[in-house]
Amino acid sequence: ELAQNDLEDRSDLTALFCDGKDSEMAATVQRAVEEGESVTIERCDNHDDRPEFWTKETFAPITDTEGTISEFAGFHRDITEDKEKRERLRQYKSAVEASPTWIFCIDSSERLIFANEDFRQFYGLDSGRVRGTQIDSIVEKSTAEKIEPVIKQALDGESVVFELETEAATGERRRFVRAVLSPLWDDDGAVTGVV
Question: Same fold for the domain at 2-83 and the one at 99-194?
Answer without folding.
Answer: yes
